[in-house]
Amino acid sequence: MSMQETIQTGKHYLLDTYAQVPVVFTGGKGMNLIDEEGKHYLDFVGGIAVNALGYGDPGLSDAINKVVSEGLLHCSNLYYNKVGVEAAKELCTLAEMERVFFCNSGAEAIEASLKLARKFGHQSEAPRSEIISMMNSFHGRTYGAVTATGQKKYHKNFAPLPQGFSYAEFNNLESVKALITEKTCAIIVEPIQGEGGIVPSEPAFLRGLRSLCDEHNLLLIYDEVQCGMGRSGKPFAYQAYGVKPDVLTTAKALAGGVPCGAMLTTGKASHIFTPGDHASTFGGNPLAMAAVREMVRRLSDPAFCAHVQEMGEYLRAKLEQLVVRYPDLCIAVRGKGLINGLVLTVPPRQVVDACFAKGVLVASAGSDVLRFVPPLVVEKKDIDAVLAVVDEVLATL
Question: Are residues 221 and 345 in the same domain?
Fold first, then answer.
């Protein structure tokens, strides 16, 4: 079957949930994806911040292959599995949290956090169930997660949505204060908004949220599905801000490309669920847990996160040069570590498509941002190569 035949077959059998680019990838090596016809693409999308170690990483491959060779790909959570327990201990240590629930995706981790928050609220003398989210946020596409998402375009055509959510202005503490009532049980926030356009939190905003949650006995939930697992230059973005949540959700790069999500808890959030409150059939399976352990091992090396910080600074400096060179096209650079965005005056899709034609993969975020979330093992030469292509494309607009 040729690449075009594969694409046509996919269009026939796959539901239309993605506007897919007409390419079929069959392999990868290092920073490059390889299509069915052998063309290489320098990848600064990374599966949307998933493939943190690039492609064909020996350590990740060995960890996964060991589990496959031992024959235990799945073990019901009715029982313990050794690699799952080890992964739980190591991830909690890295995240400086106390306990963890494993699932299979970011949306599932968010759903778990929303259920946890609601049960926490119902344990009060006067039951509380309302959750404050942020405008322009993104938390996933399942019903609870999409309702928590503060963008109306994701709500359209899916009413009635679950009740009990309100939306504050991001980075505006007074806006949050105005929404707190006697029925509020939690606040959920992305330390760095991803799909909303790569917008970092202001440190004072997160500190203010922590104070509000302490004052009103609310759970503070961080969505680090995209910005966690080293992406910010720290193992978790909250560690870069120094403001700790009660609940932390993560996924994407958690297992280096193997589907996995997690909700981590500390303090009062760690003893809310009891057996039967929540579950995941495949959550914590040995295959995913082996991959999690390898990711945690890598992130536990200070040199790894130092590299992310160094490459992020280098990338932002190069992007700032584009702002100077093309003031009519490029407005600003936003980001932290290796989650960065170039704010444009033209639709980012124009740049994305032109870069794709030249063998470079970048993505958009929001309506006006070109997103760069490469594998965390990126080097300066890769950044130079990608931004040279972006420069070429901008010069034609």
Answer: no
